[in-house]
Design goal:
- The structure holds two protein chains of two kinds.
- Chain A is an all-alpha fold.
- Chain A has 19 helices and two strands.
- A two-stranded antiparallel ribbon of chain A has the order 1-2.
- Chain A is globular and about 85 Å long.
- The two termini of chain A are 39 Å apart.
- Chain B is of the alpha+beta class.
- Chain B is built from three helices and five strands.
- Chain B has a five-stranded mixed β-sheet with strand order 3-2-1-4-5.
- Classes of the chains: A mainly alpha, B alpha+beta.
Chain lengths: 438, 92
Amino acid sequence: MANLSEKFEIISPYIMAFATSKPINAIKDGLVATMPLTLVGSVFLLIACAPIPGWNEWMAGIFGADWQAPLWQVTGATFDLIALVGVVCVAYQYAKNEGCEPLSAGMLGIVSFVIVTASSVVTKTEVVGGVLPKVWTGGKGMITAILIGLAVGYIYSWFCKRKIVIKLPEGVPEGVANAFTALIPAAAIITLSFMVYIGSKDLLGQTFVEFIYKVVQIPLQGISGSLFGAVAIPFLISFFWWFGIHGATVVGGVMGPILQANGLQNQDIMNAGGTLIAGQNAHIVTQQFIDQFITFGGSGITLGLVVAMCFLAKSNQMKTLGKLSLIPGLFNINEPILFGFTIVLNPIMFLPFLMVPTLSGIITYFSILYGLVPPFGAISVPWTTPPILSGFIIGGWQAATLQLCIIIMAAFIYLPFLKMIDKQQVKQEMQENLSEAE
Amino acid sequence: MNLYKLKVSGDDTAFIVQYSFSKNFLDYQDCDFKGTEDQKYIQFLKDLRKNGGMQPINIKMKMSSKTVDRAMTKNKLLLIPDVYQLIEKLGQ
C-alpha cells in the first residue's frame, strides 16, 4: 500500500495539472451553468413521459390526444439547445478565467457554432433553408460546442491579453468600450469560423459539426458507453478519492459532457417514437448511470457502510457516526464518512471503497443490457435527490429496486472491513473507560 | 480530537484560508486564528499538532486556478512549514 501511495505521489502532479488546466476548468465551470436547463427541462419531460403505467392514456383523456405538444416545446428549448448554450458558457468561462471581458467571448462562441452548423434541412421533397437544425444544437453537437467554446475563449483571450484591441477614450461608457474591444478578436474568430465552414464543406463534404460528431464524438460515446466505461469511471472516481483528490470532480470534468450527450441521444430516439434497446440503439452509460448508481449515497456508495454501522456496529463512536451520517447519506452527502470514519487514505478501506462502485457499475451495466432496467433518457434529478426516489424518477420501479439492491450489496461488502475497525474502536473505548475508572 | 476542514479561496498570489473544526463529524466551527495568512497557518499547525485526530484534513478548493477538493494526512500537513508552500502543494 505504501508503494502504491509513493507511485501515486509521482503521478498526482500530472493528474492535478490536467484537472486544473484552463480548458478543463472552462468546461467544468461552463457546462455546470447548463444545469438549470436540464433540471427544469427534466420536470417537463417527466410530466410528458412519467414512468407510470397508463399515464399517457390518463392525461390524453383529460387534455386531449395532443396533450404532450406544449411540453415538447419546453424540452425542445432546453435539451435540444444544450450545445448552443454550452458553447456560450464554455467560451464565457474561459475568457472570465483569463481575466477578460467574458460576454463578448460567449457571444462569439454562439456565432462561431452557428457558422459551422448546417443552415438547411432536407425533407422528402425539398431543401428548406434559413433554419438552424435542432439535431445539431442538442446532444449531437456537444463535443463541437466544447471545442469551439475553448477555441473562441482562447483566441479572444489571446487578443485581449496582448492588447490587440481597439481602445476608446476613458470617458466612453463601459458597454460601448467593451463592444469596440471585441471588434478585432471578433473579426479574427468569425473569419476563422468562415474558413472552417468552407474547408469542411468543400474538403470533407459535410459541416464541421457533423465531421466532429462522426470522427470524435461517436468514438468517445462508444468507449464511455461500453462495459469498459462502466468499470473505469467508478473505479477512477473512488481511486482518486482514496488518494485525497475529489474523484467525481476530476472524472466528471472530462466525462460529463460525453455522458450527457449519451443520455440526450437516447432521448432523441424516444422523442422520435423509437424504443430504446440497450446493446442496439441505446447508450447504457449516461450521467444518470453515474449519479444514481455509482456515486449515490456518496462516492463509494458509502450509504451501505452507514446502514451497516447503524445496525451492526458495536463501538459507541461507530454507532454515533452511523446515526449522524444517515440523513446526509440519504441526500448523497458522505463527507462525515470520508473524513470521519475515515475512508480517505485509510489502507483498510481501499479495497471495499473501490470494489463497491465498480461492482455496482458492472451490475447496473448488465441490468440495462439485459433489459431489467430501462436505458436512461434526458430526465435527470438534482444530485441530492435521495436514492430509491431518484431511481424511480429516472427509470421507474426497476431502477429504484436496483438502487435498493446495490445499497444492500454495499452494506455486505463494507461489513467485514467495518467490523475490523469497529473491533479496534471497541478495544480503545474499553481502555479509555478503564483508565477513567482508575 | 478535532476533525479539521480548510476552505481556500482567491488566487495563487492573493488567497484566503478559512479554518474550521468539528468534534462530532458534522457541525463545524470557525477556528479563531488571527493575523496574516502565514500567521494563521502557523497557529493552525500548532492546533492540529495538539488537538488533531488521525483523520485526514478536508481541503475545499475555491480558488480561481485550483478547483479540485483535496485531502491531506495530518503528518503530511505538519511537514509543510508555511502557507505559501501549502498553496503550491494543493496544485500537485
